Amino acid sequence: MGTNGSTMLEPLRQGLPPIDPSAVSSSVSCALPARYEAVRGARQFTRSTLGQWDLNDRFDDVALVVSELVTNALRHALPSGTAPRDIDTEPSVRLHLMRWTGRLVCAVRDPSYDGPTARESEEDFSAESGRGLFLVDSFSDGWGWHPLAGSLRGKVVWALFRLG
Q1: Strand ordering across the sheet containing 143-147
Q2: Measured between alpha carbons, how far is 157 from 111 in angstroms, rounded to an integer?
Q3: Within the chain, where are the H helices?
Q4: In terms of pLDDT, which residue wins out, 49 or 113?
Q5: Spatial distance between the Cα atoms of 64 and 17, rounded to a whole number of angstroms
Q6: Taking the model in full, what pTM does it have?
Q7: Are 70 and 32 in contact (CB under 8 A)?
């Protein structure tokens, strides 16, 4: 039994109904460069993956949520004061898509430990960040976030979609 929880699923399992990692029928991920063009790449990756999984009918909702999660990761999770660009050697943001029989999870990993929040300060009152989380909440069947376990830095933000 693998109790060594450095897998991507381990933090997800803390906030989702118990899932046996061996029950994942499909799981893919891609590293995203720390640039805003990465959002387009994430959408293309999502489109091709959902096509392979015969889930094209879910693309619009899933792609909207993926776009918001990746945008938030790039906007809020990169070191402050630096423009998004390639940082160090390891990719700073990673998109994971995982599919079970009855559910699909998209998860975005980033190096920040700060959880996503709907911002309420005056300067951010009309900002996109709060609206982005509202969209994620509206178009998915649930979402959450957790710090990464073990030697991994940062957090993962996930959204769940029920299938069929």
Answers
A1: 26-32, 93-99, 103-110, 155-162, 143-147
A2: 11
A3: 9-13, 38-52, 59-76, 128-139
A4: 49
A5: 24
A6: 0.76
A7: yes
Report the distance separating Cα 119 and Cα 121, nearest Å.
6
* Chain segment 115-138, per-residue pLDDT in tens: 887 655 444 444 445 678 889 999
Distance CA 162, CA 96 (A): 16
Q: Do 55 and 46 meet the contact criterion of CB atoms below 8 Å apart?
A: no
122 token code pair: 């005056």
**Mean pLDDT on 83-103:** 72
C-alpha distances in angstroms, 108 versus 2, 43, 59? 23, 13, 17
Question: In this predicted structure, what is the pLDDT of residue 21?
Answer: 56
Which of 45, 41, 164 has the alpha carbon at shortest distance from 100? 164
Written as six digits, the tokens of 136 are 């994620």
Residues 19, 62: Cα–Cα separation, whole Å: 21
pLDDT-based confidence at residue 36 (cuts at 50, 70, 90):
confident
Q: Which two tokens stand for residue 44?
A: 């293309």
Q: Which among 5, 33, 15, 8 has a CA at the least distance from the CA of 98? A: 8
Which residue do the tokens 């160090």 mark?
88
